[in-house]
Design a protein that fits this description.
Blueprint: H1 4-19, H2 47-55, H3 68-76, E1 80-86, E2 92-98, E3 101-109, E4 116-122, E5 125-136, E6 141-151, E7 154-162, E8 168-174, E9 177-185, E10 191-197, E11 200-208, E12 214-220, E13 223-232, E14 237-244, E15 247-255, H4 277-296
Antiparallel strand pairs: 1-2, 2-3, 3-4, 4-5, 5-6, 6-7, 7-8, 8-9, 9-10, 10-11, 11-12, 12-13, 13-14, 14-15
């Protein structure tokens, strides 16, 4: 027997199951009302249907890939201690890095002239304490040229520079030039000690010659300029006066240590004095009073 009422209920359930499906996301403006025809069905899904609906992706966005050069550049970034790193021109560096720059302790070898620097670095430049060496073609080994302090790839602070076997400078530097106080030893045995400016003696200083004679006074542009004293110890004399570009323009010469001098002059400098100073003073006062009386009349 057939029951019309049961068929109607089955058809209603089938219709409800047919309408129930995956929910559709509808974008509407704020405050807008979703039409009734697009509202999701209120009937519940079966357990299997609800699980499939939950696993369905809402949207798919392709993942962006970085260019290959960026990946290679990140691998090429240098940080920390690295072994030999060669530049395009052939220079070689061994030491510490920071943000792809030489930073910390390191050793640099220049291919062009064979120079070697070993010491401190800061952000790609020599900064701190370090030594600079150059190859000696005659001896076949390296010779130390400079040891001291650096600032932004230039000599700055205290340092020693070797110009030759017996010629070197020790003292202050600024911008890779001798500036401040320093002592210079020359190959002929002379020694200068005093102030420097722009790689030349400038200011107060003393030049001591190999034979023991010395100059004490003012310097400018590497020459004697201004007041000073020159001790001729080999002859036992002292000159005190004024210099212009290494030439004494005026001054006084007196005997100084003539008895101990190795080569004293044949005759001592005679003493210059006034025989009757009182009469000279009286004559001067008389002339002064006479001139005052004439002005008053």
């Amino acid at each position: 027997m057939s029951f019309p009422g049961r068929r109607t209920r089955r058809k209603g359930r089938a219709l409800q199951n047919g309408l129930a499906g995956p929910r559709v996301a509808i974008a509407t403006h704020a405050g807008a009302r979703t039409p009734e025809c697009l509202q999701p069905a209120t009937s519940s899904l079966s357990p299997q249907g609800s699980k499939e609906a939950a696993n369905m992706p809402i949207s798919k966005c392709p993942q962006k890939s970085e260019p290959l050069w960026k990946e290679w550049d990140q691998k090429a970034q240098k940080n920390g201690l690295r072994h030999q790193v060669y530049a395009v021109n052939g220079d070689c560096y061994v030491g510490e890095w920071k943000d792809n720059m030489k930073h910390g302790k390191g050793k640099q070898i220049w291919k062009k002239n064979g120079a070697i620097y070993e010491g401190d670095w800061k952000f790609g430049k020599r900064d701190g304490y370090g030594t600079l060496s150059l190859p000696d073609q005659e001896m076949g080994k390296y010779k130390r040229v400079y040891l001291g302090w650096w600032k932004k790839d230039k000599k700055a602070g205290y340092g020693i520079q070797f110009f030759g076997p017996r010629k070197y400078y020790e003292g202050e530097w600024c911008g890779s030039k001798r500036s401040g106080w320093g002592r210079m030893y020359y190959s002929n045995g002379d020694t200068y000690e005093g102030q420097w400016r722009n790689d030349k003696p400038d200011g107060e200083g003393m030049l001591r010659l190999e034979n023991g004679n010395r100059y004490e006074g003012h310097w400018q542009r590497g020459m004697k300029n201004g007041s000073g004293r020159f001790f001729h110890l080999d002859h036992g004399q002292l000159f005190e006066g004024f210099w212009v570009d290494d030439v004494a323009k005026c001054g006084t010469l007196i005997d100084f240590g003539r008895d101990e001098a190795p080569e004293p002059t044949q005759f001592p400098i005679p003493e210059v004095k006034i025989l009757d100073p009182d009469s000279v003073l009286e004559e001067a006062l008389a002339l002064f009073r006479k001139s005052e009386d004439e002005e008053g009349n």
